Amino acid sequence: MSLSPISPENYAKLEALNNPKVINQVERFVKICKPAKVSVITDSPEDIAYVRQLALDLGEEQKLNMEGHTVHFDGFYDQARDKPHTAVLTPLRMKLSKGIVTVPRYEGLRNIMGILYESMKGKECLVRFFSLGPTNSRFTICALQITDSAYVAHSEDILYRSGYEQFKKLEGSPDFFSFIHSSGKLDKRSCTENVEKRRIYIDVLDGEVYSANNQYAGNSLGLKKLALRLALYKANHEDWLTEHMLLMGVHPEGKNRVTYFAGAYPSACGKTSTAMIPGQTIVGDDIAYLRADPEGNCRGVNIESGVFGIIKDVNPVDDPLIYKVITTPREMIFSNILVRDGEPYWLGMGRDDIPDRGVNFSGAWWKGRKDPDGNEIPFSHSNARYTIRISELENADPHIDDPEGIVVEGIFYGGRDSDTNVPVAEALNWHHGVYLGATIESETTSATLGKAGVRKSSPMAVMDFMVVPLHTYLKNHIRFGDNLENCPRVFSTNYFLKYNGKYTNEKVDKKIWVLWAEGRIHGEYNAIKTPIGYIPHYDDLRDLFRRVFDREYTREEYEVQFSIRVEKFLEKIGRMEKLFREEDEMPEEFWRVHETQRAKLEALSNRGKKFSPSYFT
């Protein structure tokens, strides 16, 4: 045995995997990070319980009054994903799309190894093994996590499937992802001190991610958005898709069937609320792998088995299922909320008895306390989180862990748009569907940037995690669908259309748009063909509103929501033209759809700015 921090018992656990690359990785980073102790964690309940207790013993988590509930606090300046310091390591001649942060690979590796040097000195290093996707599946990707944070390791136990036994089935193959993380120097609250040296580097060539001087899960949990990047690279060099998508089962009322959808939405555009529509089932809310099966269907799996969700505004009215889970006994982690006498409090929880003092992400907190810049500190962070297992939810789909995945028959693409897109429309074909996904826009609100109506392009809601040129990603999408025998139908959604300054629909109405899309897949509804896609007939929506909500949906509402705003669509096409002409080698199919849609809308523009659905019948 060559490594003194590893006991014979722990080294035997590594040797049992019969995988030289695993041993090499562990030895390499133990030598660099120099921990005082190394613990290799298997799938055994005893090992997993050890990690959970260690998080408490180290002060990274504290118990709350409710059985199984703990709280973790990230540092005051470590409360969100660090986009500027999250970079793809690029070798010579690798060119990525505009907006993707990159660092030359040699320079980045030298920098991060210097930061990691002795970063675990005096601390315990945990070696973890997980499965991205269900185990024993063609979707499975094995993941090795090396970290000095028991909170990170505990979180991953809730969010992912154990993978030590799955590693044995690799039979020595080096085909797995590796994630190396160190919290760095910790303060008295067990929070990272030197966040100014925070770095998250993605090495797509070797399938490795290096993360240092952070604890916030979006930066530290390698298996989440960091693994998404590695899988994006892998999928786009093979023949499948890695997507920032929900997976859900749609169950039409009174019919004995379930139809599965995937869906991509930028932040604050309705992704979680769609996945949690009452009466439907959730497979996943964040990341999906999609592959073709031998019958030519698109099958999907959730790579995770848990939810790392924003807790703000989770209350018994708006999110009853989640609220029930996080207010009853079970294993779960809160982060960056307020705690007073062992009780948790968060923004928008629906209570008016919030304490005026307690402990939160800033340390000791009292109402009126200000940060170093003079800003009043809220009692709970707006990005505070809860970490739970999906299986704890009453609407968890029974096929979450099915190694074959679920057959995806529909895909939703949604943005935040106050004046252009209709609430729901079906793409004319797969190529048009890829175009709809590529041209998603998210419109800011006054609460976020101080100026409303600023549109941000967000192709497939995945640009924040892109590690290949956009044209490569889109070509892979087009090729994937073209090769399917049974291609998913694609739908655009928009829950944020306004008229005279007010939203044209209620929050719950998204259920109608989803049920209409499900019915279209089964041939139950005809549709009106327009230049922007197929839109619903009024009578079908009226009947759905009556049956589902016992509510009258008027023709006036329909006309406002589903009229085609030609002028606005042409403005959007102009924005897309400017944006995508800057991208080299965009697929011909993209431009063909783009030019066809523009020509048809321009022909209409000679006759008016807005057209009723009846014009196209």
Q: What does this protein structure show overall?
A:
With about 625 residues, this protein is of the alpha+beta class. About 30% of the residues lie in helices and about 25% in strands. Strands 1, 4, 5, 6, 7, 8, 9, 10 and 11 form a 9-stranded mixed beta sheet that branches. Strands 12, 13, 14, 15, 16, 17, 25, 26 and 29 form a 9-stranded mixed beta sheet that branches. α3 (about 45-55) crosses α5. Mean pLDDT is about 95; it is low at about 445-450.
Tell me the strand percentage band: 15-25%
Shape field = globular
Helix count equals 18
**Main sheet properties:** 9 strands, mixed
Pick out the low-confidence regions: 446-450
Q: Regarding quaternary structure, how should these chains be classified?
A: single chain
The tally of strands reads: 35
* Helical/strand content category: alpha+beta
Rg (CA only): 25 Å
Portion in helices: 25-40%
Can you summarize this structure?
By secondary structure, the chain is an alpha+beta fold.
List keywords for this structure.
9-stranded mixed beta sheet, alpha+beta, 617 residues, 35 strands, 18 helices
